[in-house]
């Protein structure tokens, strides 16, 4: 069975935000106003956060892309009273939007604060209203949403493989953020395949995961910029 995972090399990431823009465009992430930003009600399935080490003048700054970590033991799935969030057989923590009742238990259970509640009816400028992705649903207000590793792309890859009469290859499927990264900082693939690029990088001495001591077992790994980081 495939287990999809991602490795992000912080030494390569320049913080260009190409992954953020690609994620928003691919998944119809609603835009917010400055007023919503002030009260913390923006939605960002993928965000790039700064990480600063040292003291002036010896300061090192890094950009850290963060999305749902697709935990192997996701606490969000245990608290949802209507099973709107669950882990599928490929290890992706999925969302069933029409089942969500907006209780936000999953938002509070996520130790990484990487789930987002849709407070307002989604809207886009008139010039973008016709540019939404028809392969991804437009979520109404009052539901929780998050990164799903562009799971609709996996379904498309399965359909192509079936039409061509062959099994699905891991390289057939890549999330939008991975495809958009100009530096190749994001690597995606099957963690259970020991020969895959993502599995090799996850075994690197530079590899780490956020808050590993919690035991959620994230499937998003990071490669530290230096061995000392």
State the gist of this model:
By secondary structure, the chain is of the alpha+beta class. The chain has helices at residues 18-26, 34-38, 75-79, 105-109, 151-163, 176-180, 197-202, and strands spanning 4-9, 47-55, 58-66, 85-87, 93-95, 116-117, 144-145, 186-190, 207-208, 220-223.
Structural category is alpha+beta
What is the overall silhouette? globular
> In percent terms, what proportion of residues is strand?
15-25%
Helix content range of the residues, please? Answer: 10-25%
- What is the level 1 CATH name? Alpha Beta
Query: Cα-atom Rg, whole angstroms?
Result: 18 Å
Would you give the CATH topology?
Alpha-Beta Plaits
User: Mean of the pLDDT scores?
Assistant: 90
Number of domains: 1
Using DSSP, what is the number of strands? 10
Order of helices and strands: EHHEEHEEHEEHHEHEE
- Level-2 CATH architecture: 2-Layer Sandwich
Q: Oligomeric form of this entry? A: single chain
List the main descriptive attributes of the protein structure presented here.
single chain, globular, 229 residues, 10 strands
Describe, in plain words, how this protein is organized in 3D:
This protein is α+β, with helices and mostly antiparallel strands and 229 residues long. The protein has a single domain (4-223), classed as Alpha-Beta Plaits (2-Layer Sandwich), CATH 3.30.70.20. Helices cover 21% and strands 20% of the residues. It has seven helices and ten strands. The strands form four sheets. The chain has a four-stranded mixed sheet. The chain has a two-stranded antiparallel ribbon with strand order 2-3. A two-stranded antiparallel ribbon has the order 4-5. A hairpin with a 2-residue loop joins strand 2 and strand 3 (58-66). The longest helix has 13 residues, at 151-163. The protein is globular. The model has no long low-confidence stretch (mean pLDDT 90).
């Amino acid at each position: 069975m495939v287990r999809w995972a991602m490795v992000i090399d912080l030494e390569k990431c320049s913080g260009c935000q190409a992954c953020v823009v690609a994620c928003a465009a691919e998944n119809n992430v609603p835009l917010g106003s400055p007023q919503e930003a002030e009260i913390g009600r923006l939605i960002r399935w993928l965000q790039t956060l700064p990480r600063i080490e040292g003291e002036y003048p010896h300061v090192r700054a890094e950009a850290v892309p963060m999305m749902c970590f697709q935990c192997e033991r996701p606490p969000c799935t245990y608290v949802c009273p209507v099973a709107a969030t669950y882990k599928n057989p490929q290890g992706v923590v999925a969302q069933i939007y029409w089942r969500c009742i907006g209780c936000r238990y999953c938002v509070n259970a996520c130790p990484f604060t990487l789930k987002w509640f849709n407070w307002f009816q989604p809207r886009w400028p008139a010039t973008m209203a016709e540019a939404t992705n028809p392969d991804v649903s437009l979520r109404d207000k009052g539901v929780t949403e998050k990164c799903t590793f562009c799971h609709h792309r996996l379904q498309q890859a399965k359909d192509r493989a079936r039409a061509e009469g062959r099994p699905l290859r891991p390289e057939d499927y890549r999330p939008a953020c991975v495809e958009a990264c100009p530096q190749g900082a994001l690597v995606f693939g099957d963690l259970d395949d020991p020969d895959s690029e993502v599995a090799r990088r996850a075994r690197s001495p530079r590899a780490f995961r956020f808050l590993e001591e919690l035991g959620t077992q994230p499937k998003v790994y990071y490669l530290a910029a230096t061995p000392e980081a």
